[in-house]
Write a structure and sequence with these properties.
Largest sheet: 3 strands, antiparallel
Radius of gyration: 35 Å
Structural class: mainly alpha
Strand order of the largest sheet: 1-2-3
Number of strands: 3
Number of helices: 8
Helix content: 40-55%
Length: about 240
């Protein structure tokens, strides 16, 4: 209280903040408030504050008031789930700790980052995917072995070499054995794409895309032709009559 009164006294005398802080250090020595605290109270008096006491801390609101506050917070995040605790606290004139407590304890919410996906389906693609899934389910119900005949594929980038991880380099050693050393290699810049097709029994076709080749519709048409020839050779049970 004494130091706050001195800060107020210096401000009333027209002293700058720097001058006020220097005088405070001379008067109070090691017991002087920190520069941040002195500036905080100097700014308060500069903004027109007159009282030296701390602001009353808001206690836990009554049950009825808290229920109303919980309802408002619920409505806010229902309208926009990206709202920050700071924004809601300022909008509702409450502390950030109180809003965070309501979100985590009363509403059992956790802020989770979105997962990145390569692309999003438009409405027509989404409807088509649902219809295809329904057709697969109907066929699988009629023919229990249908799912075993599904062939799917995927692509991945293969590097010329991948550096060994620290976990992979771990070895069993005695207490007195010297520690092993491992160089920090980076992934090779030379890479090629691997296309692989497989079913429930294993891999049917895998091939590397030649360097400089464009993976477009024309190239994939050739891949499909090679895949079908491979299926005919290694999975004759997939062939339909007349194919």
């Amino acid at each position: 209280m004494e130091q706050r009164a001195n800060i107020k006294f210096c401000f009333k005398l027209g002293k700058t903040f720097t001058e006020t802080f220097e005088l405070m250090k001379k008067v109070h020595g090691d017991d002087c408030l920190s520069r941040t605290r002195v500036f905080e109270w100097y700014k308060r008096f500069q903004d027109g504050r007159d009282a030296l006491e701390n602001d009353p801390k808001p206690g836990r609101p009554k049950k009825k008031n808290r229920d109303e506050l919980v309802k408002k917070v619920r409505e806010m995040i229902a309208y926009d789930a990206n709202l920050t605790v700071r924004w809601m606290a300022e909008e509702l004139n409450k502390t950030k700790d109180m809003i965070h407590e309501i979100l985590t304890k009363d509403l059992d919410k956790r802020k989770v980052c979105a997962r990145f996906v390569p692309h999003a389906l438009n409405e027509d693609q989404g409807i088509a995917r649902v219809e295809h899934c329904k057709d697969i389910i109907k066929t699988a119900r009629r023919n229990p072995s249908f799912l075993e005949s599904i062939v799917t594929g995927d692509e991945t980038w293969c590097f010329k070499y991948d550096p060994q991880t620290k976990r992979q380099s771990a070895t069993w050693k005695s207490p007195g054995s010297p520690k092993s050393k491992k160089l920090r290699f980076q992934k090779s810049r030379e890479k090629t794409m691997l296309i692989c097709f497989y079913d429930s029994k294993g891999i049917i076709l895998r091939e590397f895309v030649p360097q400089g080749e464009n993976v477009n519709g024309e190239y994939y048409l050739g891949v499909m032709e090679r895949l079908w020839k491979r299926i005919v050779r290694v999975r004759p049970e997939y062939r339909t009559p007349g194919s």
